[in-house]
Amino acid sequence: MLSPLLLGKRFPEKADLPKASSLCGACNEVCPVNIPIPDLLLRLRDRAHSEGIPSPGTPPMGAWALLATQPSAWRIALLGGRLLNHLPTSLIPVPALRAWESKRTLPTWRGGEFRAWLRKRRG
How far apart are CA 48 and CA 55, in angstroms? Predict the structure, then answer.
């Protein structure tokens, strides 16, 4: 949190550091002098955004935004996820995922079960 502030005009060099926090608020709860750390981190993130500083470690969220705002697209994506249970993992097109999967096994896709559980519970 301090590094971007201490750099002054060289702020863009460390502007991505405030994005390492999950903003869960635990730091604020344990701070003995009650520094509003989450608020400061949000301000630093906002400053980086308003100054147009790119964040190389942040994945693009456009597809997620589309899925999260379109219920029908979300349901289709959940159904598509079930197809992954039947595809061999050797067909994964992302090299990093293939490398990860060579040492681990992917869990069975269970998308949509929470909604089914909730429906049964309410019914």
Answer: 9
- Judge contact between 48 and 55, C-beta under 8 A: yes
Residue 62, H or E segment: helix 62-69
- Give residue-wise pLDDT tens across range 62-110: 888 989 999 999 888 888 888 878 878 777 788 887 888 888 887 787 7
DSSP state of 74: H
First to last CA, the chain: 48
In contact, 12 and 53? CB cutoff 8 Å: yes
Which phi and psi angles does 75 have, rounded to 5°?
Answer: -65, -40
Please tell me the pTM assigned to this model: 0.51
| Cα 49–chain centre separation | 17
Question: What does the buried/exposed string (b/e) look like for 63-76 if buried means 16 or more CB atoms within 10 Å of the residue's CB?
Answer: eeeeeeeeeeeeee
Separation CA 15–CA 43 (nearest Å)? 11
